[in-house]
Protein: HNH endonuclease
Amino acid sequence: MSTGFNLTPAHIEQALAKIDRDGIPQRRNSKVYDLLIDNKKYPLKIVVDIAHDIAGLPRPQGEGFNSIVSKEFFEANGYTVLTDKKQAHEEFRKSRLAEPGKTCPECGHPFQDGIDAHWRKNHANIMSYEEAWPLIQAGTYHEEKQRREADREADLKDLEAVVKDLDAIDKDPDLSPTEREVKGKARVGQSAYRKQMLELWGGKCAVTGCDLQSMLIASHAKAWAASSSKEKLDPHNGVPLVPTLDRLFDNHLISFHPETGDMLLAREIDTRERRMQLGISTVEKSLRKAPNKQQAAYLRHHFEAFMKKQRDKAVA
Structure:
């Protein structure tokens, strides 16, 4: 075993045995990380503390050293570490991104690396903490941050140009409403909107997982005609779909439940024969991931329009 904590396998085994014998100290259950051994969970921070006591070593100080680094140490030595993802993000933020002057440890400690990299909390809108930390360690954080900031500035300029173009299209007296929509969608499809929308879905069709970019269409959940310029350019209003699904979605022949992402089929296509004719008989009947809060709000508009269309046809 490597000795990032100057511990030996014997120290770890004795710590586990002590926990088995005496139980977990009061109010010391794990919030983030657990060590999994023989299908039994042990709070990672407690194992580290007890192992240091057994080894006659001072306990590691600082939340980050006692939690994040503990995880890295055990994983590097072949142990299985379970993560509570909801708590992990906050733990990571507090441990890695200390501000100068607050619990500033000695040089070389993970805290200090983050401070030396001049990380600030507002950089989280450029990249996540989890993305940033390996870059800080590799010494490439600044270069990547500058690249992303340049990309963001270019995207903002692009979106400003798109808004102006959409306004001009909407005011063109020579275009019919249908022509305005076609031209507007084409312009938006050429913009940063498409890139950002695809990033939200991992660059793949939201249903089939197809990653052939030329075959993905940025479908708007809230109808184009009912959307403001801001909503038309909001990537959360987009759902990347392969052409057949895009046409079905656009014509309210399919929809997706805004909370679960389950696919609903209109009565006229909800037969085995029709699904085979459309080539969707083997398609998954749900989005590949549950919609987030912003996506759900837009999908609800589409879902309600779909349900109204079905009700109207039922009474016709």
